[in-house]
Amino acid sequence: MPHAVTIATPGLQALILCGPGSSFPTFTANPDENPKALLPIANRPMVWYPLDFCYRAGITNITLVCPPSAAAAITTALNTNPFLTSLPYPRPDLLAPKDLDQNTGTAEILRLPELQSAVTSDFLVLPCDLVCELGADKLLQAWMVKSASLPDLLGDGRADPLHVSRSGGLGVWYPTKTGKPVPPIKGEETDFLATVPLPPSTVLAPNGSLFPNMARLVYSTPTDTLKDTLEDEDGFPVRHGLARRHPNVRMLATHRDAHIYIFPRWIMDMVRENDRLETIGEDVIGWWAKAGWQQGLSGKLGLDKVLQKSSASDGIGGGGGGNGSQHNNNNNSSNEPGSPEDEKSSSSPSAPRSVASPRLGNNGHHHHHHHFGGGQYSPVGSQMATVTDKERAELQARQKESLARSSTNPSSTVPPMLAYVHPSTPAEAGAAAPPLIRRVDTAQLLLQISLQLAKLPSVEETGEAAASPLAHARKVAYPEGVKARTTITKQDSLVADNVTVQEKTSIKECVIGANCQINEGAKLFQCLLMDGVVVGKNCKLTKCILGKRSEIGEGCTLVDCEVQENLLVEPKSESSFLSCYLQSTDWRAILDERTFILTTVTWISRRKRGKVHVLVRSRGDRAGS
Amino acid sequence: MSAEGTGAPPSGAPALQEKPQTTTTTPAPAKTPAAASSTPEAPKLTAAQQKAKAKAEKAARRAQVKEAKAAPVVAAPVAAGKGKGGGKQDAASSGGGGSQPQKPSHHRPSMSGGRRPSVVAATILKETRSSIPECFRHVPMAKRVPTSAAHKDVHPAVLAVGQQMATFAIKDSIARLEATLLAFRRVIESYETPKGNSLSRHFVPHVLNPQIEYLTECRPMCFAMGNAIRLLKTQVNKFDIDTPEDEAKEGLLETIDLFIRERISLAEFVIARNAARLINDGDVVLTYGRHRLVEKTFLRAKENGKTFGVSIIDDPYDNGGQALAKTLHAAGIRVFYSPNLGGLRANVERASNVLLGAEAIFANGSLQAPAGTADVAMVATNVNKKVVALCETINFDRERVAVDSLTYNEIDPGRNTAESFRLMFDNTRDRYISG
């Protein structure tokens, strides 16, 4: 029975971006009818996870953003799916801006007028494919304490509007190559980030808080972009400005951006003013992080204006009031995000630069500690500060300089963009096991994360208090449907409602969706079955992902396969030797190839209205193709 | 003796602390000339205020009875009877009866508001406090509740302020007071009286109390916050039941603005101005830790053209002195820095006078200040140096007296193990402050 949220709401709203899911070619071939947001992860629709993440922290003002074409499917699911309907009240709003299609960049989405008017307060941006065991309240606490500015939150009108410090933001990065709790997955995207430590706090961080892992972000880019830069530049160019400003930089190459962002409202203005920004992760965060140390960049991004304006008219929510001036600003700075790039590439060869070779390998993350020009800023000494004259002069000069800078340019202090770098080892996390944070955007991840979630002890076993927030109520939701003499390994399997399992079957490390039917003698190992799958007698399935309502004929042996929804795999099909990677979406080409290579596999294609789909997609290495 | 009835904590105040209270009932002579003379207006504890307080206490007692009734079905009548009786006896200042029945309630009377603390908070509290010996159980400690354990009526602004307090991002009493008041402003602004209710009847129990309760769970309130909240509640009670909502809200906002202006901004200005006059050319002024009034005073004196040095003895658990040293150094003041109390006597002897910042001042004139302040004051008195303490009147507590550091204190939640725990404040008797 759904109930209202009973905890305090932190005053932020959440945007959940329900994207197209281009990385699930098998299951989102038709993204309008089967949007990625509704793919099941461990039997719950994907979008349940970010929604639950919000509700757990008391955030109830949630807006799902999706293309108009997918709105109908998502609305239906919100009204009918048992998991989505059992979420607490109030229900999330669905926003389908008319100019939004499946290829719109995330920052472009924020620029849409519908979003500009929908976001009225500080906000969270979440992807629909986020599985996050970590409570949002901890992130919010970190944001409230380390990044938000009190005058901003409290609307302290007395402070000088030119000098008021504005709230910053917070992002989350998680390690991809740790092997725990999820084994490393080939081809998972990573991001490159550089952080500097926060100013040391005099107070011990409370137990269980995220403060020890918080850092200030100074550089962020997807690893792909970084690789391009590395190839072009034959090394990684580091601006001297960065080194001067932050002598101690930590660079991480195998972490990934979880796309959890806590943003202050003024980000909407920044995005609106800079129409070159395409994505949040690469452009907005990247430029913002750089503007924190790169001189003049905040001016180019129009941050000064944005920060002042929003402090002058806070909470009004970006009405049409300032449109004229915005336009001017756009003209003045139309090429800004491009120009710093040019500048960077042109100036870096002439200036002596320090090239750090990041060795972007698979062997964990690398820490580069640069120590430049020591003694620029010596902390006040241990016993009766013995500051030498030279140092003092230097210090004073620096202070004067910074003072002069801040007086000429009132908001040259760009609010910080903080990074929570999720620890990979229990020792760092301060708990038995670090909570799971993962984006699920490939089929392989879908399988692995589902299996991982299936291993969580259920609420039935551990009790309400100790269970993970993502645990299911029961491992086998409908025990009556399971016949005797079957093997289901309960510690690592999950069987949903209304599943019938016939005798002599074996289900090990599997996630079985609702209404599935497993017939006699079937053996399933590390499989993910979406809703309504029928597995024939004596099938042997290993590491397969079976789409909604697909049907596997008798006696099939499938390994490493993805089966699209509504499809029937002929009895006695075998795929164990399939090792070619069929990537082409042109089904004819595949069929040709298939007839050539895979003669022993019979395929039946159509079950539904003349559409021909690829029946079985086999994953594996590319060696065969 | 009116302090007895209203001031003493009804729950678990050990008897040993009651004793000195009765012996030292001399009215508090304001030993802090700078502070006392500079305050724009002294807070009067009117009869109405006392009444309100008594009322709050009564409500708290009732709530406790209710709680006891609700909790164990079997023990309900017994516990309820005890709770009631205990409360009354306690008011009559017999320590024995009052301390038994409600063991785990560490709230001060005005804080236990009337709503149950959430289950999560209770478990957290139990875990962290279990290591503290029985005789120190009355000393409160910041519970640091997560936002997810807060009551659902807590306003977002208060939520953020509470988290900042819980993590000690804002920790000195005036900063906390200011943030609280500003957050309450937001609460009042967003408040709408439900139909069939009036602001004066509805606002405090249903809106304000959950906020206060949450803030208290994040970290025990400081005296300044207690004073301010009492004032605010009185203001609400003053409204006639028929006062239009807009008018009442306007009035409350005005009260808060006035309060901030007079008790915080103006007080700070006047105290800094007056205290700066105590600094002479060529002085070396010693201070302990970092206090914003002391810092303001130094900067003010520098502005006035004085040349002097500052010797900072830092609190080793809270290196605020470093930040102070940086600020003063940037302003061109000569700074001596010592990271802890080591060699204190030598440092004090070298100084010409001592300027201390206080967290609160009790009715008997003793000073509550960050742990270590008392040592500095005692040594300074010993070597005949002038000791001046700075404190805003809003931090004065006119009802409670304290002669030791254990009556009113706080346990540092970050340093609290089975073997040892740290008290955050200490008590400096008035005789060590020369004024």
UniProtKB/TrEMBL annotation, chain A:
Q: Could you provide one GO biological process annotation from this protein's UniProt record?
A: cytoplasmic translational initiation
Query: What is one GO cellular-component annotation here?
Result: eukaryotic translation initiation factor 2B complex
Biased segments, Gly residues type? 315-324
Which molecular-function annotations from GO does this UniProt entry contain? guanyl-nucleotide exchange factor activity; translation initiation factor activity
Q: Where is the composition biased (Polar residues)?
A: 404-414
Quaternary form?
Answer: Component of the translation initiation factor 2B (eIF2B) complex which is a heterodecamer of two sets of five different subunits: alpha, beta, gamma, delta and epsilon. Subunits alpha, beta and delta comprise a regulatory subcomplex and subunits epsilon and gamma comprise a catalytic subcomplex. Within the complex, the hexameric regulatory complex resides at the center, with the two heterodimeric catalytic subcomplexes bound on opposite sides.
Protein name per UniProt: Translation initiation factor eIF2B subunit gamma
- Native source organism of the sequence: Bombardia bombarda
Q: What is the lineage of its organism?
A: Eukaryota, Fungi, Dikarya, Ascomycota, Pezizomycotina
UniProtKB/TrEMBL annotation, chain B:
Q: How does it assemble?
A: Component of the translation initiation factor 2B (eIF2B) complex which is a heterodecamer of two sets of five different subunits: alpha, beta, gamma, delta and epsilon. Subunits alpha, beta and delta comprise a regulatory subcomplex and subunits epsilon and gamma comprise a catalytic subcomplex. Within the complex, the hexameric regulatory complex resides at the center, with the two heterodimeric catalytic subcomplexes bound on opposite sides.
Q: What keywords were assigned to this record?
A: Cytoplasm, Initiation factor, Protein biosynthesis
Localization recorded for this chain is: Cytoplasm, Cytosol
Residue ranges with Basic and acidic residues bias: 54-69
Gene Ontology molecular function: any one: translation initiation factor activity
Residue stretches of biased makeup (Low complexity): 17-51, 70-81
Q: What is the designated name of this protein?
A: Translation initiation factor eIF2B subunit delta
Spell out the family assignment given in the record's similarity comment: Belongs to the eIF-2B alpha/beta/delta subunits family.
**Membrane-crossing residues?**
none
Skewed-composition ranges (Gly residues): 82-99
Top-level taxon in the UniProt lineage = Eukaryota
